[in-house]
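Exam revision sheet. Question 4 asks you to relate a sequence to its structure. Input first:
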Amino acid sequence: MRGLGTLLAELEAEAIHIFRESVAQSSRPVMLFSAGKDSTVLAHLALRAFYPAKPPFPLLHIDSTWEFKSLIAFRDAFARNNGFNLIVRANEQGRAAGVNPFDHGEYYTSAMRTEPLKAALDEGRFDIIFGGARRDEDQSRAKERVISFRTASHAWDPRQQRPELWQIFNARCGPGQTARVFPLSNWTEADIWNYALARQIPLAPLYFAEPRPVVERNGTLIVVDDASKMRLEPNERIQQKVVRFRTLGCWPVTGAVESRASDVATVLQETELATTSERRGRIGDGKEGESLEQKKREGYF
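Answer key, structure tokens:
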């Protein structure tokens, strides 16, 4: 295992500090866990922050019902192997009604991600909610502080942000407030991969290149994770390509990239040479994060 280096050591120390300070000011913390690279690194940092005890909070996953099957398997194995209590919530009424990303667009994200998230947070009475968002992902993420306060309805107002000077983080919530806390705020995509390499952190296999069944749609490669649920358009055909993902969401609306990077070191090399944002693979984000910001104002993480 290679050493962390000064920058990664500082980022690790900052994240651990944010975890400890926030938990000290919380009554019911929780951590959102998608099993993606950011939340997996974040969970490893939580394990380090509270070692030899276990982190004093559960993992919460909002299952959109259109998740990659291998990601669900990775999620369950990660929680089991690391002693986390895993809470999984989904909009079962939406599932029964057949709400899906092909037919329902923006409503799908609201119904199957935002609303069950808010319901799960209310049900658990969680006040501090840790997440793996990073400022370099897009403009709306960059507007948030490390500790981002939400109203009783989980709405976000970028104008209502507390100052965070000299690494002093005030996570005390006012009446009706909750706080989304982002210990990875100052990390970049390359930092995540460098850290995973240095700490030898296993990540979901979807991040590594291998032959997968894909459909090319409007210049984007969609991996067909469940052929029985795929909606093929006229003249489309499923073909095999060697691809991987830079970002992960629901499989029908997440674009893959052609690649030969099959381990952390080669993925890191590709990442450092990339000229586009990783969230270009999120088909539902809209123009330059405008849609994402609106979703966040409505309670999306």
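Marking note for examiners. The first strand starts at residue 29 and ends at 32.
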